[in-house]
Write a structure and sequence with these properties.
The protein is α+β, with helices and mostly antiparallel strands. The protein contains three helices and five strands; from the N terminus they run βββααβαβ. The strands form two sheets. It has a three-stranded antiparallel sheet with strand order 4-3-5. The chain has a two-stranded antiparallel sheet with strand order 1-2. The structure holds L-tyrosinamide. The site of L-tyrosinamide has 13 residues, from strand 3, helix 1 and helix 2.
């Protein structure tokens, strides 16, 4: 999905010499959108079953995958629930945090930029 344009260089055009100096034309290519990961954080109080249900409902994971993600968070401190464009990631994180708060659980998630991969 490419939808932003990026100016990567100036290219000298044929008739670029004028009394105003050298005129360069922009070289434009599609820019990959920056992606953001929603990261779930561990705590000592939120029930495991509640966390699994959150991952199923908000991130459309199967019970098996949701359980693996929950256990990763539980043992390693944090885990990625999904990768999205910034507005989707921010919205999902806000919905999860609000639902946890409404349910009186301390569960929290946060949004982090995904490191750029040079190959893409
Ligand atoms: N550590 C919690 C417990 O032992 C479970 C848990 C897992 C909480 C993942 C939050 O993001 C979380 N009940």
């Amino acid at each position: 999905m490419f939808y932003m344009l990026e100016i990567i260089a100036g290219q000298k055009s044929d008739d670029s010499e004028s009394e105003l100096g050298t005129i360069t034309e922009p070289v434009i290519r599609p820019k990959k959108p920056s992606m953001y990961q929603v990261v779930l954080l561990n705590d000592d109080y939120t029930p495991m079953e509640f966390v699994v249900e959150i991952i199923e409902e908000f991130f459309y994971k199967t019970r098996d995958v949701a359980t693996r993600i929950m256990l990763k968070v539980h043992t390693e401190g944090k885990g990625i629930c999904g990768v999205f464009t910034q507005d989707v990631a921010e919205t999902k994180a806000a919905l999860v945090n609000q639902h946890a708060q409404d349910s009186k659980h301390p569960l929290m998630c946060q949004v982090e930029p995904v490191e750029d991969n040079e190959e893409d």
